[in-house]
Amino acid sequence: MPWKLTPLLLFLAWMAYKCNARARTDLFNVCMDAKHHKIKPGPEDKLHDQCIPWKKNACCSAKVSQELHRDTSSLYNFNWDHCGKMEPACKRHFIQDNCLYECSPNLGPWIQEVNQSWRKERFLNVPLCKEDCQSWWEDCRTSYTCKTNWQKGWNWTSGSNKCPTGTTCGTFEFYFPTPAALCEGLWSHSYKLSNYSRGSGRCIQMWFDPAQGNPNEEVARFYALAMSAGAMPQGIRPLLLCLALILPLWLHD
């Protein structure tokens, strides 16, 4: 009888939900598969300076956090001063950006697979709080660069990044006329300028006071759950196909 199917239907629906929820819950606390990231996040009591906010739960090691603060780090041999000395206030934002990239375990909802020699994953369109983007742009507008996309196109023949032939050094404000141009274009859309403010629970903060806790945990949870809800119909489709195949056999018996 059809009513006998009720326990089976409920069980299969529950299993589909749990499998989907499990996959999304993993996004709350995860490290990217990239060059210097740890396999799993965990405590790091000796993180350096701007990376300290992540010491309770980090994807970076203390050694990596120290290297991130060097003008030309051995991690990637990237030189911030490719067009002359970068202003200290500007460089502070780039160090915080690097700490977020290397140390944060709360970027799971935006992790994407990539086919690159130095990493298998990256994050894409992370909603960066509007104040963080605005202050980054304000503090860097008088520093100098020669490119709008720093992720590719450099001259690496010397071992570190140099301006490619045909480019000229100009102010950040020239190459990035708006905060969105800087935050979204700099690293090939790793970030997306959010309309939300710090503390809203809807945007990622590049830096925070560790004494107040990590606000990005709530943000990652919100977006992971939103993704889970949006993905539910896709997860149910295989279940319905399975039921369609099983139902005739069950009724026949």
Summarize the structure in words.
This protein has 253 residues and is mainly alpha-helical. 40% of the residues lie in helices and 8% in strands. It contains seven helices and six strands; from the N terminus they run αααβββαββααβα. The chain has helices at 6-25, 62-67, 88-103, 130-140, 172-175, 179-185, 216-252, and strands spanning 111-116, 119-123, 126-128, 144-145, 170-171, 191-193. A two-stranded antiparallel sheet has the order 1-2. Strand 1 and strand 2 form a beta hairpin. Helix 1 packs antiparallel against helix 7 (216-252) and helix 4 (130-140) packs across helix 6. The chain is globular, with a radius of gyration of 23 Å.
Determine the structural class based on helices, strands and strand pairing.
Answer: mainly alpha
Largest sheet: 2 strands, antiparallel
How does the overall form come out from the CA principal axes? Answer: globular
What is the helix/strand order? HHHEEEHEEHHEH
Mean pLDDT: 83
Task: Please list the strands of the largest sheet in the order they lie side by side.
Answer: 1-2
Strand content: 5-15%
Stretches where pLDDT falls below 50 for ≥5 residues? 1-5, 9-24, 232-237, 247-251
Alpha plus pi helix count: 7
- Please give the share of residues in helix: 25-40%
Radius of gyration: 23 Å
What's the total count of β strands? 6
Identify the quaternary structure here: single chain
- The first-to-last residue Cα distance is 9 Å
GO molecular function, one term: signaling receptor activity
Family: Belongs to the folate receptor family.
Pfam families: Folate_rec
Protein name: Folate receptor-like domain-containing protein
